[in-house]
TrEMBL record:
Keyword vocabulary terms for this entry: Membrane, Transmembrane, Transmembrane helix
Name this protein carries in UniProt: G-protein coupled receptors family 1 profile domain-containing protein
Species of provenance: Chloebia gouldiae (Gouldian finch)
Gene3D superfamilies membership: Rhodopsin 7-helix transmembrane proteins
Bilayer-crossing regions: 41-61, 73-94, 109-130, 151-172, 196-218, 238-259, 279-300
Membrane is among the record's keywords: yes
Top-level taxon in the UniProt lineage: Eukaryota
Length: 338
């Protein structure tokens, strides 16, 4: 693998001398769109995602202390922590339509942590699918038995994603680490191999595994005594809804990553429209991280039941307090009339 000189690359909105009115209007419109999307994300998705994530953590700790853990709880905890970290890293979009200014080294460190949680959430979800798949089909191999041990699965996923993230950090490039640049979590100045590896191991292979899991689930006959297919899917709607949402959002994101790679190979910086679409794809992926936590909290039965129980308890307390206040008011009125 040869080193690449990426000093020529820059964002279209930061490099082109805009002279014609059409170009100026295009850049203003692009900046308005990305600014509005950023504000919507920060105002609606971030609070919802963080509240859902904190609720999941509290419920898990409570169930753990009461020894009421379900088989998927640890995997969902792992997935939740990854998405919470992703939400915090997404605060880098607050400066949009501008970009963070950081050294190449600092930007590489940010990218390492971003890739770690990106890969981690993807492969933890695959582990969750395998766990559900094995509920319908009896385990026969050591690999199948291993997937029934959530702690072992989590350890393997963390090790694998750490190696992938380290590889991506190397592919960002080690030259000019002291220079300052406009920084995204997927650095623009990364080598083309960076995006190719990210697409392959962060979307291509996981998507194939996900399709394989769904194919086996639909095509293979379940063991005797197993629940019907629709009952099985209905018992875990959070997993399948999250999978569909992750696939659609990350498909758009990865298409834009590959398109950016094509521009790099052509030694072109692209247009402001290309830059806008990449920014939109990044925010859409961050929205998916927030929405996934909300879906898990609302549709995963152990978490949903706990939330409903707390809501019902609060309603009873409110009704009791209202009843007590009315009784005290009635007694006061009777005393005053006497």
């Amino acid at each position: 693998m040869t080193s690449h000189n990426m000093t020529w690359i820059s964002y279209p909105s930061k490099s082109q001398p805009f002279t014609s009115p059409e170009e100026i209007e295009a850049i203003i419109a692009s900046q308005n769109i990305i600014s509005r999307l950023m504000h919507c994300y920060i105002a609606f998705f971030v609070p919802a995602g963080l509240i859902a994530g904190i609720c999941i953590l509290i419920i898990f700790i409570k169930n753990h202390m009461q020894n009421k853990r379900a088989s998927l709880d640890l995997l969902f905890l792992h997935f939740t922590i990854s998405n919470i970290i992703m939400i915090f890293l997404s605060f880098t979009v607050i400066t949009r339509p501008d970009y963070l200014t950081a050294t190449h080294l600092a930007c590489s460190v940010l990218s390492f942590f971003f890739n770690f949680v990106y890969f981690n959430s993807q492969y933890v979800f695959i582990s969750t699918l395998l766990t559900l798949l094995l509920e319908r089909f009896p385990p026969r191999t050591a690999l199948c038995r291993a997937t029934q041990r959530p702690i072992l699965c989590a350890g393997l996923v963390v090790t694998y994603t750490f190696c992938l993230s380290l590889t991506e950090a190397v592919l960002i490039g080690t030259d000019n680490y002291h220079l300052e640049a406009h920084c995204q979590l997927d650095p623009l100045f990364a080598w083309p191999e960076y995006e190719i590896v990210k697409f392959t191991f962060g979307f291509g292979i996981p998507s194939l595994l996900q399709i394989l899991c769904f194919t086996v689930l639909w095509a293979k006959e379940a063991r005797a005594g197993a629940a019907a297919l629709w009952q099985h899917i209905g018992a875990y709607p959070a997993v399948y809804a999250t999978g569909a949402m992750m696939f659609m959002c990350r498909l758009f994101y990865n298409i834009m990553i590959l398109f950016r790679t094509a521009l790099k190979l052509q030694r072109s910086i692209g247009t402001t429209k290309n830059e806008l679409l990449m920014n939109i794809a990044e925010i859409v992926m961050f929205c998916e991280s927030c929405a996934s936590l909300v879906v898990i909290l609302c549709f995963y039965k152990p978490f949903r039941d706990e939330v409903l129980r707390v809501i019902q308890k609060c309603r009873r307390k409110t009704r009791a307090n209202n009843h007590l206040e009315r009784s005290e008011t009635a007694m006061t009125c009777q005393s005053g009339s006497q």
